[in-house]
Design goal:
The complex is a heterotrimer. Chain A is α+β, with helices and mostly antiparallel strands. Chain A contains 20 helices and 21 strands. Helices cover 67% and strands 4% of the residues of chain B. The longest helix of chain B is centred in the C-terminal third of the chain and has 34 residues, at 335-368. Chain B is globular, with a radius of gyration of 22 Å. Chain C has one helix and eleven strands. In chain C, the strands form two sheets. In chain C, strands 2-1-11-10-7-8 form a six-stranded antiparallel beta sheet, with no helix packed on it. The chains are: A alpha+beta, B mainly alpha, C alpha+beta. Chains in contact: A-B, A-C, B-C. Chain A binds chain B through residues 2-6, 8-10, 13-14, 16-17, 19-21, 23-25, 27-29, 31-32, 35-36, 40-43, 45-46, 49, 72, 125, and chain B through 190, 243, 246-250, 290, 298-299, 301-302, 304-309, 312-313, 316, 319-322, 326, 340, 344-345, 348-349, 352, 355-356, 359-360, 363, 366-367, 372, 375-376, 379, 383, 386-387, 390, 393-394, 397-399.
C-alpha cells in the first residue's frame, strides 16, 4: 500500500530538517565567536572603516594617535615615528599591530571596560563608543630614544623598576604608520616598501628582537649564584689568573678571555670580575652553580617563556628569551658543562629580548622584586563635549614577584655600580654614568655587553643599567639598549643608556 | 457561521499569526527609523485582510479541507512580509505600476490567495488532471523549451518570460504540471513498477516499456533545466521525482539508483559546465575567493554568526557596508540568512517548524486520500514545497551548494507565490474530497 | 536617556515577536496532537476493510448511485443472487467478474462474461492489477475502487 511508504518519506524529510537545525546551530552558536573575530568579518571592517577610533595619549596628555572621519573613511594620524612600534598601525588592508591591535576592541568601542556596560550596550544595541587610552610612556623620552637610535638598527626599553610602567620603548629603523593607516589604496606602496626593506622595519625589536646578550647576562649569572649561595661577593677562583692567559678547559673545550686591553690578570673578586667583565670568572660561577640551578635561575627572571606587557587579555606579546633551545615546555637541558660555562657569560645558545634584559636590570634595581611591565595605564570614557574624558578603568602591573632576595639584589647593585664607577669598570660602562650628561650626585649602575656573533660579524652592542643606584635611593628608571653590529657595548649602547637615564632624571627634577 | 470545527481551528490558529505581522512591521520600523508611527501598518492591515478573507471564503463555502495548512502558510508568509517590508524597497518591484517591493508582493499575495480559493473551492472533479497526464507532461516540456528559446536571461540563467511590464518564471508552473503528470503516470502503473521483472546485476528493474515514457519526459525536462543553468530547479525536480517514485513503489533501490545517477550527472555537469563547477567550488570552500565568487556564501555565513541564538533584533541586522546591503539577493534566495541574522537560531527554527507543519499536513492529506492519483498528487505537491524550502535553506547554510530558488511564501517573487498558493489550493481540494461530508448543520432546519 | 528607553521598548517588542512565534508553533503542535488522536479514533471506528467500491453509474438502480460498498478479499460481481455484489443490470452476466486482494494489490478478472469487464475504459483480457482510483465497468454499472 502506498500509505505505508509515506511515514518513511516523512522520516527522511525530518532528517533533512534535523540536518538544517544542526547546521544553523553550528554557524549561529558554535562558530559565532570565531567568525566574529575573523579579520575579514564585514562588521569589523565596516566598524573600522568609518568609525571614529579612540585617541591615544602619553602620560603627559600628548596626543600620540588620533582619528578623523573624512568621507566615511576613518583616517588615523600618528604624531611621529618615535612611537610607531609601541602603538602599531591600523590598516584596513594589512591589519593592526602593537597597542592598536591589543586594545582594538576598546579603541573601536566594540567592548566596554566595564563588563556590565558591555551587557547593557549589547542588549540595547547602542552604537559603539570609542575609548581613549593613556599610556605610561612619555613622548619626550620616546623622541629622545628614537633620535639616539636614528641611523642604527637597535632598540631601547626603559622601565620604572618599582611600578612596571614602560617609560620608553623604541625600535629602529622606524617608519611612518600614518602612511599605511589611512586609505587602503594609498597604503599599498609604502607597505610593500616596508616589507622589502632589508632592515625589516616592521619588526618591533624591543619586544621581538632576540639577540645574543653577551656580558649583560653576567648580571643574571651573578644574581642566581648569589641567591643559591654558591658564591659571595668575596669569592675568588684560584686558577682564574692563570686561565685568563691560557684559557679554561671544560669538557675538552677551551674558553678564552676577551681582549683585556692591557689590564694584567689578577685574582679577581665578583666586583672586579664584573668591572673587567671576566669571562673566565663567570664561567667558574656558572660551573659552581650547575646546569639545572642555572636554568632555574634564568627561568625565575622570565627566560624560557614568552613575556607579556600589560593585562592578559590586552597583552603585547614579547618573544621568549632562551638559555638553550626553546621547546614547548621551556628550555631544554644544557648539552654539557662547556655550554653552561659559555652561557654563564651570555654566549653559546643564550638569546634575549631587550625587554627581558630591561626587566633583569629593573628587578635588581627594585630590590629583587620583579614588577611585570605594562604600557596602558588608563582607559577613558570619551567626553561628549570633546574635552578630556573620565577614567573608565585603570591598570597597573599585572604581577609582582620576588626573584632574588633584597640582600642579593643589593650585592648585585653594588657590583653594577662598581662597573660604572670603579677603576677597572669605568673604561667600559663608565660611558653610561649620568654625570656625563649633566646629572650630578647620582650613582649609576650598569653593565655593558659585547655579544659575539661568530666569525666576520661585528658584535652587538648592549647596555643594561639603572639610576639612581646609591644605597637607599628609590630607583627611577632601568634601561636596556641594543645596537645591532655596533661593536663594544662601551662605545655605542652605554652612552645611549646613560643619556636616556639622565633625561628621565632631568625631566623629573634632578 | 462556524459550522465546521475544522474552520474554527483554522481561525484560532490564524489569529496569533495575524497579530505577528503588525507587531513585526512596527518593530522593524522603530528599529530602523527610531520613531513610533502607524503609517507602515498599511502593509500589515492588507496582510490581515487578505488571509482573513481567504479564511471566511473557505468557511462560507462549507469547505472541509485541511485546517492547518492555511495557518501554516500564513505563518511562513508572515516572515516574508515582515522581512520584505523591512528591506530597502528599491531592491525589486514593478516600476511600471509605481509599486515598491512590498507593494508588488502584496498584490501577488492577493492574486495567489484568489487562485488558491478558486482551486480549493472550484475544483469539484480532478478528472481533467488524471485523464490527461501526458498532456500535462508535454505541456510542461513545451513551456520549458519556449522559455529556453525565447526567455530573457537574468543573472546568467534564462528563466524568465517577459511580456510588457510582466515577467514570470515558468519553472514554478512547470513544477506543478510535472507533479500532475507523475502522479497520473505513477498511479496508473504503480503495480507494475512495484513488481520487478528485469534484473540488471544486483538491481532489479521493471520492464522498460513501462518506465520509458516517464523517463523520456523527465529526462527532457532535466536536460533543458540543466542547460538553462537553473541548478536549484533541477535539484528540486529530481528530488520530487525520486520522492514520488519511492512512495509509489516503496523501493529504496530506485532512490539509491536515482542518487547514484544524480551524483554521476553532477560530476559530469561539473566537468562540462563552468557555472556548475563554480557553484560547487564555492560550496566546498567559500573562503577561497571571499570577495568575488564566494562573496554571497561568506556574507550569509557572517549574517548567521551575527544573529546567534536570539538574533540581532528585527530591523537591526544586515549592516550596510558603504551603503550596500551585505548579502546579494537577500530578498529572494538569501532571505533565510536575513531571518537567521535578525531573529537568530530561534527564529530560523520557528520557520522550519512551520515548514514541518506544511509537510505533516501535506502527507496526512496524501495518506487519507481515497485513490492513488490523489495520494500521489498530494505527496508530490507537499514534497515540492518542503524540498524547495530545504534546498534553499540548506544552500544558505552551506549544507548543499547554493542555488537560485525561492523560499516558498517567504522570498520575493510573484511566480513563486502564485504557484505555491495554487499548490495549497490543490492540497485543500484533495483534502476536501477526502473528508466525509458532515451531518447537515442545525441551522439548515427551518 | 529617551533614546535608551526607546531601545528598551524595542528590545521588549523584539523578544515579544520571538515569543509570539513560539506561541504560534505551540498551538500548531497542540492542534497536530489533537488531530492525531481524532484520526486514531476515526481509524479504529472505520477499520472496516481493505477497500471499497463507490458506485458512479447504475441504470438499473441496484446498487444505487453513490453507494459505498465495503469489499472483502474475494468479491464476486454479477447478476446471480449469491454474488458478493448483486447487480440488477441486463448487460451483466451471472458470474461476471471477481475482485481479489493478493499481497498488496487488488486484481480483477473476468469470469467469461458476455460483454466483458472494463478498467478505465479498456476491456481486460486477463487478470489485471488495479490501483485505487481505477474505474471498473461491469455491464452498465460503473464503480470506482477506493481505499
Amino acid at each position: 500500500m502506498i500509505a505505508t511508504h509515506l511515514p518513511r518519506l516523512a522520516t527522511a524529510l525530518l532528517a533533512g530538517f534535523a540536518v538544517l537545525v544542526l547546521a544553523m546551530s553550528w554557524w549561529q552558536v558554535v562558530m559565532a565567536a570565531p567568525l566574529e573575530a575573523r579579520p575579514d568579518n564585514p562588521a569589523l571592517i565596516a566598524a573600522h572603516r568609518s568609525q571614529p577610533r579612540g585617541t591615544i595619549f602619553d602620560r603627559q596628555g600628548t596626543v600620540l594617535a588620533s582619528t578623523a572621519v573624512i568621507d566615511d573613511l576613518a583616517r588615523r594620524t600618528y604624531l611621529d615615528a618615535a612611537s610607531t612600534h609601541l602603538l602599531g598601525y591600523t590598516s584596513l588592508r594589512y591589519g593592526t599591530a602593537g597597542v592598536e591591535q591589543a586594545w582594538d576592541e576598546l579603541l573601536v568601542g566594540l567592548r566596554d571596560p566595564n563588563p556590565l556596560h558591555d551587557v547593557v550596550n549589547d542588549v540595547l544595541q547602542r552604537p559603539p563608543i570609542p575609548h581613549d587610552l593613556v599610556l605610561t610612556v612619555d613622548h619626550r623620552m620616546q623622541a629622545l630614544a628614537s633620535q639616539l637610535l636614528a641611523g642604527t638598527v637597535g632598540a631601547v626599553v626603559a622601565l620604572d623598576p618599582s611600578t612596571g610602567e614602560v617609560l620608553a620603548l623604541a625600535s629602529s629603523p622606524t617608519f611612518d604608520a600614518t602612511a599605511i593607516s589611512g586609505d587602503p589604496a594609498a597604503a599599498e606602496a609604502p607597505w610593500l616598501a616596508l616589507q622589502e626593506d632589508p632592515n625589516h622595519p616592521l619588526v618591533n625589536r624591543a619586544l621581538n628582537g632576540v639577540y645574543v646578550p653577551g656580558s649583560v647576562m653576567k648580571v643574571l649569572t651573578a644574581a642566581s649564584a648569589l641567591e643559591a649561595g654558591v658564591i659571595t661577593p668575596e669569592t675568588t677562583f684560584p686558577t682564574q689568573p692563570e686561565e685568563e692567559v691560557n684559557g679554561l678547559v671544560v669538557n675538552g673545550f677551551t674558553i678564552v678571555e676577551h681582549d683585556l686591553a692591557g689590564v694584567q690578570p689578577a685574582l679577581w673578586d665578583l666586583s672586579e670580575a664584573m668591572q673587567i667583565s671576566s669571562n673566565i670568572y663567570f664561567a667558574h660561577v656558572g660551573l659552581a652553580l650547575g646546569q639545572a640551578p642555572y636554568l632555574a635561575g634564568a627561568e625565575d627572571f622570565g627566560f624560557c617563556d614568552g613575556l607579556q606587557v600589560g593585562p592578559r587579555d590586552h597583552a603585547l606579546a614579547v618573544s621568549a628569551s632562551a638559555v638553550t633551545a626553546l621547546t614547548d615546555a621551556g628550555c631544554e637541558d644544557f648539552v654539557d658543562d662547556a655550554e653552561l660555562a659559555s652561557a654563564a657569560f651570555g654566549q653559546a645558545r643564550v638569546t634575549a629580548t631587550p625587554m627581558q634584559m630591561a626587566l633583569v636590570a629593573a628587578t635588581i634595581a627594585n630590590g629583587g622584586t620583579m614588577v611585570e611591565p605594562y604600557v596602558v595605564q588608563e582607559v577613558l570614557d570619551p567626553d561628549p563635549a570633546g574635552g578630556p574624558g573620565t577614567v573608565a578603568a585603570s591598570f597597573d602591573s599585572p604581577l609582582r614577584r620576588q626573584v632574588v632576595s633584597r640582600t642579593v639584589a643589593d650585592q648585585v647593585r653594588e657590583v653594577m655600580v662598581d662597573a660604572v664607577h670603579g677603576p677597572l669598570g669605568a673604561p667600559y660602562a663608565g660611558a653610561a654614568n649620568v654625570a656625563n650628561f649633566g646629572i650630578g650626585g647620582v650613582e649609576t649602575a650598569g653593565k655593558t655587553g659585547t655579544a659575539e656573533r661568530g666569525e666576520g660579524l661585528p658584535p652587538h652592542s648592549w647596555f643594561i643599567g639603572f639610576v639612581p643606584a646609591q644605597p637607599g635611593a628609590g630607583p627611577a628608571i632601568a634601561v636596556a639598549v641594543i645596537v645591532e653590529g655596533a661593536g663594544p657595548g662601551s662605545t655605542t649602547a652605554a652612552p645611549i643608556g646613560g643619556r636616556i637615564m639622565a633625561e628621565w632624571l632631568r625631566l623629573n627634577g634632578s | 457561521m462556524y459550522r465546521l470545527t475544522a474552520r474554527r481551528t483554522e481561525l484560532a490558529l490564524l489569529v496569533p499569526i495575524l497579530v505577528l505581522v503588525p507587531l513585526g512591521v512596527i518593530v522593524t520600523h522603530v528599529a530602523q527609523s527610531g520613531v513610533l508611527e502607524t503609517g507602515p501598518l498599511a502593509v500589515a492591515v492588507a496582510f490581515v485582510v487578505l488571509f482573513g478573507v481567504a479564511h471566511f471564503a473557505l468557511s462560507a463555502n462549507g469547505h472541509h479541507g485541511d485546517e492547518l495548512l492555511l495557518p501554516a502558510v500564513a505563518g511562513m508568509s508572515a516572515f516574508g512580509v515582515v522581512m520584505l517590508n523591512r528591506l530597502p524597497q528599491d531592491l525589486a518591484g514593478n516600476a511600471a505600476f509605481g509599486l515598491g517591493m512590498i507593494g508588488t508582493q502584496m498584490i501577488w499575495f492577493a492574486v495567489g490567495l484568489v487562485a488558491m480559493l478558486v482551486v480549493a473551492i472550484g475544483l469539484r472533479d480532478d478528472g481533467f488532471m488524471r485523464h490527461y497526464k501526458y498532456s500535462w507532461g508535454l505541456f510542461a516540456a513545451a513551456l520549458l523549451v519556449i522559455t529556453f528559446l525565447f526567455g530573457t536571461e537574468v543573472n546568467g540563467a534564462r528563466l524568465w518570460i517577459i511580456v510588457g511590464p510582466f515577467g514570470f518564471q515558468p519553472s514554478e508552473a512547470i513544477k506543478v504540471m510535472l507533479v500532475i503528470f507523475l502522479a497520473g503516470y505513477l498511479a496508473e502503473n504503480r503495480a507494475v513498477l512495484a513488481g520487478a521483472n528485469l534484473r540488471l546485476g544486483p538491481v532489479s528493474l521493471p520492464p522498460l516499456p513501462y518506465l520509458a515514457p516517464m523517463l523520456v519526459v523527465f529526462a527532457a525536462v532535466m536536460l533543458v533545466v540543466v542547460v538553462s543553468r537553473d541548478l536549484g530547479t533541477a535539484l528540486l525536480f529530481f528530488g520530487v521525482f525520486l520522492t514520488m517514485l519511492f512512495v509509489a513503489t516503496g523501493r529504496r533501490a530506485y532512490v539509491l539508483l536515482g542518487m547514484v545517477m544524480f551524483i554521476a550527472g553532477s560530476a559530469m555537469a561539473y566537468v562540462l559546465f563552468p557555472h556548475v563547477a563554480e557553484r560547487i567550488d564555492v560550496w566546498l570552500d567559500p573562503w577561497a575567493d571571499p570577495n568575488d565568487t564566494g562573496y554571497q556564501a561568506v556574507q550569509a555565513i557572517y549574517a548567521f554568526a551575527r544573529g546567534g541564538l536570539l538574533g540581532e533584533g528585527l530591523g537591526q541586522g544586515l549592516p550596510a557596508i558603504n551603503g550596500i546591503l551585505p548579502i546579494p539577493a537577500v530578498h529572494t534566495d538569501m532571505i533565510f540568512a536575513a531571518i537567521g541574522e535578525e531573529l537568530g537560531l530561534l527564529g530560523g527554527v520557528a520557520l522550519l517548524g512551520l515548514v514541518a507543519v506544511v509537510m505533516a499536513r501535506g502527507l496526512r492529506i496524501a495518506v487519507l486520500a481515497r485513490d492513488d492519483f490523489s495520494t500521489m498528487l498530494a505527496t508530490g505537491l507537499a514534497a515540492g514545497l518542503v524540498l524547495q524550502s530545504l534546498i534553499i535553506i540548506g544552500g544558505n547554510l552551506k549544507v548543499v551548494p547554493l542555488t537560485g530558488i525561492t523560499l516558498p511564501f517567504v522570498s520575493y517573487g510573484g511566480s513563486s507565490l502564485l504557484a505555491s498558493f495554487v499548490v495549497v489550493g490543490l492540497l485543500l481540494s484533495v483534502s476536501h474530497r477526502t473528508t466525509p461530508q458532515p451531518a447537515p448543520a442545525v441551522e439548515d432546519d427551518p | 536617556m529617551t533614546n535608551d528607553l526607546l531601545r528598551l521598548i524595542l528590545l521588549a517588542l523584539q523578544l515579544g515577536f520571538l515569543a509570539l512565534l513560539f506561541i504560534v508553533l505551540y498551538r500548531f503542535a497542540k492542534a497536530l496532537r489533537t488531530d492525531l488522536r481524532q484520526a486514531e479514533a476515526a481509524q479504529a471506528a472505520s477499520r472496516t476493510g481493505i477497500g471499497r467500491l463507490v458506485v458512479l453509474e447504475s441504470p438499473g438502480g441496484e446498487p444505487a448511485v453513490d453507494r459505498v460498498l465495503q469489499i472483502g478479499p474475494i468479491t464476486t460481481i454479477g447478476r446471480e443472487l449469491n454474488s458478493t455484489i448483486y447487480l440488477d443490470d441486463e448487460f451483466a452476466s451471472g458470474d461476471h467478474a471477481a475482485l481479489t486482494f493478493r499481497g498488496r494489490a487488488w486484481y480483477v478478472e473476468d469470469r467469461g462474461s458476455t460483454n466483458g469487464t472494463w478498467v478505465n475504459g479498456h476491456r481486460i483480457q486477463r487478470p489485471v492489477a488495479l490501483s485505487f482510483g481505477d474505474e471498473l465497468t461491469v455491464g452498465r454499472v460503473r464503480f470506482r475502487l477506493e481505499r
